[in-house]
Write a structure and sequence with these properties.
rod-shaped, about 55% helix, Beta-Lactamase, 11 helices, four-stranded antiparallel sheet, alpha+beta, Helix Hairpins, Heat Shock Protein 90
Amino acid sequence: MSAAPGRSQASSHRSPQGEGTPLSSQAISSTEPCAYSIGRRLSLLLAIQTVIGLGVLLAFIYGATTMLFTAKHEEELRSYSAVLVDVVRDANAKGGEAEIQAKLAWLAERRPGTFVQVNRADGSELYRDKAPTFDVATSVSRAMPFSVDLNRSSPLQGTLILDCTQDAKTAKRMALLLIAAVLAGAALVGWGTFWRVRCSLRPLIDLAGQTKAIDARRLGQRLTLAEPVEELQPLIDQFNGLMNRVERTYEQLEGFNADVAHELRTPLTNLIGQTEVALSRERSVGELEDTLHSNLEELHRMAAIVNDMLFLAQADRGVKARRGASVSLAQLVQQVVEFHEAPMEERGLTVSIEGDTRLSIDEPLVKRALSNLLGNAIRYADTGTNLCVRIARESGDSVRLWVENTGPCIEPEHLPRLFDRFFRADASRCELEKPHHGLGLSIVAAIARMHDGFPAAESSGGTTRVGFSLHAA
């Protein structure tokens, strides 16, 4: 069985404009939405709400005031028309039409702002105010007809006109004042809102400044506020948690790069050294073949490291396993065990398989993970002991596979890092006879994640169990 995964070939495509052609700034700017100011937007919205609210309120006040003016005018017209009726009747009883005219003229002098006209029953004019104090044709006025019964066949018909110009001017000034109050209130609310929003957003501006100061050299810096803000604290906590994860990832990446450089440096150094020795003097064909074989082994080792790194990179990008038909996991384990028969016979090891279940999985990947676990168990198991592969159905649709061996225990502080790349629990172990580059268990963890599972390891009492879970599709 081959432990290496199938290789995927990616073809590069070039655009008609050429590879790496940058987009124009105009094209980029056309796709980016325009930024807006929270303070200005809130100020505008509250100003509009103020205009609407105050406008409705003051319009109601203006309407109520005009209704009061109208009621006042109606009351004045009714009361004065009643006075005119009484005066006309009394004057008629005393002296007839001449007395009526004299009385009405006398009243006109004492009631400026009114105009009275009285007609006889036949429509002819009996009386008309000679010099009214306002222009009846152009002034704002209200009229009320009245009649006076003088025991004739037809009563006298009169018209009373009241000058409302002053009240109309007062209402107009009041309307202008109310409009000015609405606009001033909206402006005051808008400015006050903008100022308060600016003050309230000061913590956000401080956080933006602190965020801007964070770079690769200051990953340990965290966001803080001198005065905690309840609404911003969850965002600060989430951002600081994100920075903690970024810092850990960055440290792991730096360590990972150093480990990769270290792992590749050894075979490169061997290649360079052996090649320099081979070229230092004339060699026979056999010696050159030995050098080429040695170099080929180092190249295979480098290729294995590169292939494993590419596989882990794909797993980190979230690639999922390609599941096939349901298979027996016990039969799959048996196939992997047959592949490791030779090294097991050398160490005098035996294998037992406990449990079985059927599951839809990616067979090549699961075989590779089991091969890595068995190879790791064979490497560190005591000679002549038994290896046990356990297959157990867990709650739900999960299945757990354990590879158990008897041998030196792993320290508890090393267990959480057992699946890290290039991690070795004991750096003093001899790797010359059994070379490996420290990616086997990382690949196991990646294959578990690709099947929606996770790896696990236990070690106590001389027994070490390393395995992973698989989740049904």
